[in-house]
Design brief:
This protein starts with 5 loop residues before the first helix and ends with a helix. It is mostly helical.
Length: 144
């Protein structure tokens, strides 16, 4: 925008599809979380505003007053985008931490369950061997 060179404008316009594909991927990733979806819709709104302002700024002369106002609006939209991305990152991290804690809890429960089952199986084997040896000793005693 500052240099008014067309190849920068062309490069910008050719990269717009990346924004849409990234937002589509983000929508899919957050589709199962209501809180994240709410943040995503706000983020999408401000990204659309930011892109629209950038498109408008490409057609404005760099010394006009409307350019300065449009740039300020763009900065505000970008700050909103950063805010919602931070909220989504924080919420995602909290959800991940919660799920890791739950996983660890169930892993510990599985370990405790395995130890209890193993101990019970060993006791049953010891009792079975004891019963077998007792029966064997009775058989030997009756044979004599």
């Amino acid at each position: 925008m500052l240099t008014s060179e067309n190849h920068f404008k062309t490069d910008f316009q050719s990269k717009l599809y990346l924004i849409d594909s990234s937002l589509t991927s983000l929508a899919i990733l957050t589709s199962d979380n209501y809180g994240q979806k709410a943040y995503f819709f706000q983020l999408r709104k401000y990204v659309d505003i930011r892109v629209q302002l950038l498109k408008e700024n490409l057609n404005i002369k760099s010394d006009s007053k409307s350019n300065a106002q449009s740039l300020r609006q763009g900065i505000i939209a970008m700050e909103h985008c950063k805010d919602y991305m931070g909220k989504m990152r924080y919420t995602g991290r909290a959800l991940l931490d919660s799920r890791v804690a739950t996983k660890n809890k169930y892993q510990q429960l599985n370990l405790n369950f395995f130890i209890a089952i193993f101990t019970t199986a060993c006791l049953i084997c010891i009792i079975a061997i004891g019963v077998f040896l007792e029966n064997r000793s009775w058989q030997i005693a009756f044979q004599e």
